[in-house]
Amino acid sequence: MNVRVDPHSLVPPSQQLVAAVLDAIAAGELAPGDKLPSVRGLAGEALVNPNTVIKAYRDLEHLGATEGRNGSGVYVTAAGPDVAKALRLAETLATFQQAAAAAVRAGHDEQVLRAAITQARGARELGQGEAGKQRSKA
Amino acid sequence: MNVRVDPHSLVPPSQQLVAAVLDAIAAGELAPGDKLPSVRGLAGEALVNPNTVIKAYRDLEHLGATEGRNGSGVYVTAAGPDVAKALRLAETLATFQQAAAAAVRAGHDEQVLRAAITQARGARELGQGEAGKQRSKA
DNA sequence: ACGACCGTCCTATCGGTCTAGGACGGTAGG
DNA sequence: CCTACCGTCCTAGACCGATAGGACGGTCGT
Question: Is residue A100's pLDDT more than 70?
């Protein structure tokens, strides 16, 4: 799972962790019933405080994507993939609309923006292969 | 000028003010030599602290878009429009690329995204008329 | 000269977030 | 049973940005 956390970003580390976990669930990297990394383990890997991971896991539980079992671990719920995908669809569309409006307002040519989309799709198809490998290996 | 500041946003109020002023300069709403709103006036209008406006004005001066004259006011520099346009072009393209990549990764159809661009362009052409009126009136 | 307005600076405080470190009880495998 | 690991909670502190309020000197029209 992608656990890179940028401490200089405007979006707080805990939210970056939430997004990373949701991405992993939506991508099928974490399936329902799978156990998430331990609080201390993920904290060490992402170089953040365990309390920050706790907060992220609590947010994920409130979203219904995961459930924590005391003393055992945090697990992906059956509804996890649906929740993660729905959230990502809504969020990314909203931010994309804002970004598109801002870019158009700044004077960017529509053709340049379309090219950026095509480029993003191309870059995605390359990375998609790796994700599939990781899943089949798990 | 658009001085709406969202206190709940992740981007700090001072940066929102910077963006709003740059937008106004890039749109021609504020021409070189024009005086920006007073620190206290803008603070009252945007419902923020005068110190927050001071910080925004200082950032704008560092960018080279404005210059403050002690006791008189803050004025748009000759290079202001160029600076503002260049900044907006670079910033909006970067955020657009990120948003596009995220949207594609989330599974959005390329056609949906293209439609969002077209829609943004349509919305812009409507608002552009007002901006032109305001400028010709000034 | 005077008064209103201006930008600037200063100190103190508050709120949110992350960090630090320790403690508790539950779970599970040997 | 016992040990290791787990999630959870707590207190305390640091940090950053915005807020609050006051003070200073410069500018400009009258």
Answer: yes
